[in-house]
C-alpha cells in the first residue's frame, strides 16, 4: 500500500511509482461472431495516474473498459487489475468505481439512497452507510440535495450524484466511460475542474474514456490514443502540465501544443 | 459563491407562498375542468332516461326508470348488500391470487429465458380460451360455490398481471443491470433492487386491468356456479331476478356490480398515486 505522500509525488509523470494498478499484455478481444474489437493492447497504468483513452467511435475504448471492469473477459493476452488476473476478481467490486455516460440513477430512490447503493453489497450498518454517503455528497457539492429525487436535478447534478455513487466505496480505480458526453459545454467544463479537484484530494487512479481531445488533455497525466479497425493503442502521450490545473490552462500555448500533438496521432 | 446561493434560498422561500396560492387556484380550476363536464353528461343522461321512459310509457319490466331502480334497491337493500358482499369477497380473493401468482410467475419467467420460452406460450393459450367455456369444467373440478368462483375470477385476472409484469421486468434499463453486475449483485438482488421497482409502473397498469376483470370473473362464475339461498353473489342475484321478472332489482344488481368495479379501480389508482407519485411520469402532473 502506498502512503499518501508517495502518491502526491506520483503526480509528476517522470517520478511515478512503479506499481501498476492495471497491466495489459498483448490483450485482444475477438467476439464469438468473429469481430475483432481490440488487439495487441499493451499498457501499464500506475497508481495515481489519470489516463484518458481518446479515439473515434468503434476503436474499442469501451471494450477495453468492459474487460477491465470484468463485464467481459479478454480472449487473448493477460490482464491484471490490482495485482489479480482478470479471471478472478472477487475482491474487485469495492476497489473499482464506475461512471457511465448516462447517470443510471434509480429514479425511485432519493439522491442519498442512490449513493448508498454500492454499499448495500458490503457488510455495513445503516449508520455507516449514511455517513459515507453524506461524506461523498459533500465532496461533490450536493449535501443539500440528499433527499431530492433524480428527476428534480439537472443533468450536471445527476452526473455529480453518479460520481458520488462511484466514489462512495472508496475505490482505488475509477473507470469513467464518456461521463460528460451528454452535458453542455459549460457544465462539462465545471465538472472537469471538479473531477480534477476530487482526483487530487482522493488520491486514486482514474481511467477516462472520451472522444474530446481537449477534455483528455486538460484532465490527464497521460493520454492513450486509440485507432480503429481493429482497435489498438496507437500511441501514448504524457501530459507534462503541472497540477492543480486551473481554467487558465485551457488557453495556454502549452495546452494547445499538446492538443495538436494528440490530434496528430489520431490521424491514421 | 455561498452568499449568492443563500440569497437564492431566501428568494425561493419568499416565492413559495405565492406559488402555494397559485397551486391552490390551479387545483380549483382542475376540479372544474375534470369533474364538471362528466357530471353534466350524467345528469342529462339520467333525466333523459327518467322522463323518456315516462313519456313513452315504457313498462318497468322492460326499462325501469332510475327512480324505480333506486326504490327497488332500497326495498331489497338487505339482499343487495349480502349479494354485493359475497361478490366483493370472491373477486378480492381471486384478484389477490391473480396478482401474487401473476407477478410470481413473471419473476420466474424473467429470471430464465428458457422458462419464459417454454411457459409463456401456454399462458397466452390459457388467455385465449373463453372463460365461459372453461368455467363449467372448473365447477366440475372444484364444486359449485366459492372455490370455483374464486378460481374463475383468478383465471381471468391472471394473464394481464403476468404479461404486464413480464414486459416491465424485461424492459429494465440495461445500464442499470450492468451497474449492478459490476457491484457483483446476485440475480435476486438485481431483481429485488432494480427490476421489480422498475417494473412497478407496468405492474400497476396490470392491476388496473385485473381489478375490474376480477369482478367480471366473479359474476361470470356466479352465473355458472352460483349457490342459492342468502349466500349468492350479484351474478346469482341477476339470474334469479331475471327469472322472477324483478327487472328494477336486476338493474340495481347490475349497477351495483359496476359500482364495485369503479370502487376497485379507484382504490388501485390511489395505490398507484402513493407508489409512483414521486418518481414516475404516469402519476406526475406534467405541465407540457
What does the model show?
The complex is a heterodimer of chains A (268) and B (288). With 268 residues, chain A is of the alpha/beta class. Chain A has a domain at 1-82 and 209-268: 3-Layer(aba) Sandwich (Rossmann fold). Helices cover 34% and strands 24% of the residues of chain A. In chain A, the strands form 2 sheets. Chain A has a 6-stranded mixed beta sheet, sandwiched between helices. Chain A has a 4-stranded antiparallel beta sheet with strand order 2-1-4-5, with helices on one face. Chain A starts with a helix and ends with a helix. Chain B has 288 residues and is mostly helical. Chain B folds into 2 domains: 1-33; 76-283, Orthogonal Bundle (MetI-like fold), CATH 1.10.3720.10. Chain B has helices at 2-55, 66-75, 77-111, 113-128, 131-142, 146-170, 174-182, 187-225, 234-243, 247-276. In chain B, α8 (187-225) runs parallel beside α9. In chain B, 31% of the residues are buried. At the A-B interface, loops of A face α7 and α8 of B.
Short description:
By secondary structure, chain A is of the alpha/beta class. Chain A has helices spanning 4-9, 61-69, 92-95, 111-116, 126-139, 155-167, 185-202, 213-219, 253-266; strands spanning 20-30, 36-46, 50-54, 76-81, 84-85, 96-99, 173-177, 205-210, 222-227, 232-238. Chain B: InterPro entries: MetI-like, MetI-like_sf.
- Average pLDDT of chain B works out at 86
Number of strands of chain B: 0
CATH fold name of the domain at 1-82 and 209-268 in chain A = Rossmann fold
What structural class is derived from the secondary structure elements of chain A?
alpha/beta
* Average pLDDT level of chain A: 83
Amino acid at each position: 500500500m502506498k502512503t499518501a505522500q508517495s502518491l502526491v509525488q506520483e503526480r509528476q509523470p517522470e517520478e511515478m511509482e512503479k506499481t501498476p494498478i492495471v497491466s495489459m499484455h498483448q490483450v485482444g478481444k475477438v467476439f464469438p461472431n468473429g469481430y475483432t474489437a481490440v488487439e495487441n493492447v499493451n499498457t501499464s497504468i500506475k497508481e495515481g495516474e489519470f489516463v484518458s483513452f481518446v479515439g473515434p467511435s468503434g476503436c474499442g475504448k469501451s471494450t477495453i473498459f468492459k474487460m477491465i471492469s470484468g463485464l467481459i473477459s479478454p480472449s487473448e493476452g493477460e490482464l491484471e487489475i490490482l495485482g489479480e488476473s482478470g479471471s478472478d476478481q472477487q475482491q474487485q467490486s469495492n476497489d473499482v468505481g464506475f461512471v457511465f455516460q448516462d447517470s443510471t440513477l434509480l429514479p425511485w430512490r432519493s439522491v442519498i439512497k442512490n449513493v448508498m447503493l454500492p454499499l448495500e453489497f458490503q457488510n455495513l450498518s445503516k449508520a455507516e452507510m449514511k455517513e459515507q454517503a453524506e461524506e461523498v455528497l459533500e465532496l461533490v457539492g450536493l449535501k443539500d440535495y440528499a433527499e431530492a429525487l433524480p428527476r428534480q436535478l439537472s443533468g450536471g447534478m445527476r452526473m455529480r450524484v453518479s460520481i458520488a455513487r462511484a466514489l462512495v466505496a472508496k475505490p482505488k480505480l475509477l473507470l469513467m466511460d464518456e461521463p460528460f458526453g451528454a452535458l453542455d459545454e459549460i457544465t462539462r467544463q465545471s465538472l472537469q475542474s471538479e473531477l480534477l479537484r476530487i482526483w487530487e484530494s482522493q488520491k486514486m487512479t482514474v481511467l477516462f474514456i472520451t472522444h474530446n481531445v481537449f477534455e483528455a488533455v486538460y484532465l490527464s497525466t497521460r493520454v492513450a490514443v486509440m485507432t480503429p479497425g481493429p482497435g489498438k493503442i496507437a500511441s501514448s502521450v504524457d501530459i507534462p502540465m503541472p497540477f492543480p490545473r486551473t481554467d487558465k490552462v485551457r488557453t495556454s500555448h502549452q495546452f494547445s501544443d499538446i492538443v495538436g500533438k494528440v490530434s496528430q496521432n489520431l490521424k491514421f | 459563491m455561498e452568499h449568492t446561493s443563500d440569497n437564492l434560498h431566501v428568494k425561493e422561500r419568499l416565492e413559495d407562498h405565492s406559488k402555494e396560492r397559485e397551486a391552490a387556484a390551479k387545483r380549483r380550476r382542475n376540479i372544474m375542468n375534470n369533474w364538471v363536464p362528466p357530471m353534466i353528461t350524467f345528469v342529462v343522461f339520467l333525466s333523459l332516461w327518467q322522463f323518456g321512459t315516462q313519456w313513452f310509457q315504457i313498462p318497468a319490466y322492460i326499462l325501469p326508470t332510475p327512480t324505480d331502480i333506486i326504490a327497488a334497491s332500497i326495498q331489497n337493500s338487505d339482499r343487495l348488500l349480502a349479494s354485493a358482499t359475497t361478490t366483493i369477497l370472491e373477486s378480492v380473493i381471486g384478484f389477490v391470487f391473480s396478482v401474487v401468482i401473476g407477478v410470481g410467475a413473471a419473476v420466474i419467467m424473467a429470471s430464465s429465458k428458457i422458462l419464459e420460452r417454454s411457459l409463456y406460450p401456454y399462458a397466452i393459450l390459457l388467455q385465449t380460451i373463453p372463460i365461459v367455456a372453461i368455467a363449467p369444467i372448473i365447477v366440475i373440478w372444484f364444486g359449485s360455490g366459492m372455490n370455483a368462483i374464486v378460481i374463475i375470477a383468478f383465471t381471468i385476472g391472471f394473464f394481464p398481471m403476468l404479461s404486464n409484469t413480464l414486459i416491465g421486468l424485461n424492459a429494465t434499463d440495461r445500464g442499470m443491470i450492468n451497474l449492478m453486475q459490476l457491484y457483483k449483485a446476485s440475480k435476486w438482488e438485481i431483481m429485488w433492487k432494480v427490476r421489480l421497482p422498475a417494473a412497478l409502473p407496468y405492474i400497476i397498469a396490470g392491476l388496473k386491468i385485473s381489478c375490474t376483470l376480477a369482478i367480471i370473473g366473479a359474476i361470470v362464475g356466479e352465473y355458472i356456479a352460483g349457490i342459492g339461498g342468502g349466500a349468492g353473489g350479484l351474478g346469482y342475484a341477476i339470474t334469479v331476478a331475471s327469472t322472477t321478472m324483478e327487472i328494477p332489482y336486476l338493474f340495481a344488481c347490475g349497477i351495483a356490480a359496476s359500482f364495485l368495479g369503479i370502487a376497485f379501480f379507484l382504490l388501485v389508482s390511489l395505490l398507484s398515486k402513493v407508489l409512483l407519485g414521486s418518481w414516475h411520469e404516469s402519476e406526475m402532473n406534467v405541465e407540457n
